[in-house]
Design a protein that fits this description.
It is built from 7 helices and 4 strands, in the order H-H-H-H-E-H-E-H-E-E-H. It is about 40% helix and about 10% strand. It has a 4-stranded parallel sheet with strand order 3-2-1-4. With about 220 residues, the protein is of the alpha/beta class. Helix 5 packs parallel to helix 6 (about 125-135). It has helices at about 5-15, 25-30, 35-65, 75-80, 95-110, 125-135, 210-215, and strands at about 85-90, 115-120, 140, 175-180. The radius of gyration is 35 Å and the shape is elongated. The chain folds into 2 domains: about 5-65, no CATH class; about 80-215, Spore Coat Polysaccharide Biosynthesis Protein SpsA, Chain A.
Amino acid sequence: MNSPNEATHSLLRETLKVSTGKVHTYKRILFNKHGLFRFITKSILFFGGLAIFGILSIFTYETIKSPKYDSVLYDSNYVCHDSKTSFFSSLYSDNYLKGALLLGYTIKKNHPNHKMYLQYFPGRLSTNTICQLRSIGWIMKPVERIHPPWKGLYKGYRDQYTKLRMWSFTEFKDGIIYLDSDTIVLKYIANLFELIKPSTGYEFAASPDLIYALET
């Protein structure tokens, strides 16, 4: 008759049989360094992955549960109202197309019911450029160039006097916000139109270019 210890060893051998038919004793399994290392590594990876999955699941649930949107986009009194105020910018070269597209996108994202007009010189912009600008929502407004009052002006500024054409756009009686095509709009800024109403006593407001503001 087998002793209790021999019976226990025999039971363990039967339990630890593998597909190859070989028998490994429990001592070899427990005290083999490589086997123990693999077991610990796999355990860490498994439980670590499980923890990361749980954290991501909680974060995703909280994001879906309470999304944060700009409330003005869900205000029907605002979105469904045809605004008489407009945003303006200008583009005189195909080289700045990407900037104008990004500006137009950020304006529309935060001001879906405001119209956007883009000044340009007929013949200066390619057909493809004009097509892309219109797809973003820009309304193309051809203007005649205003030449600079003196010679020797830096090349990049020679077309900028054409911005003064906006003073002739009398159809926009409720206000215009002009933004250079290398700027972006990060939030709702239509409240600026309230600053240039007759009741405030102001008809014009401006801010300095950031580059020059930092130099002063």
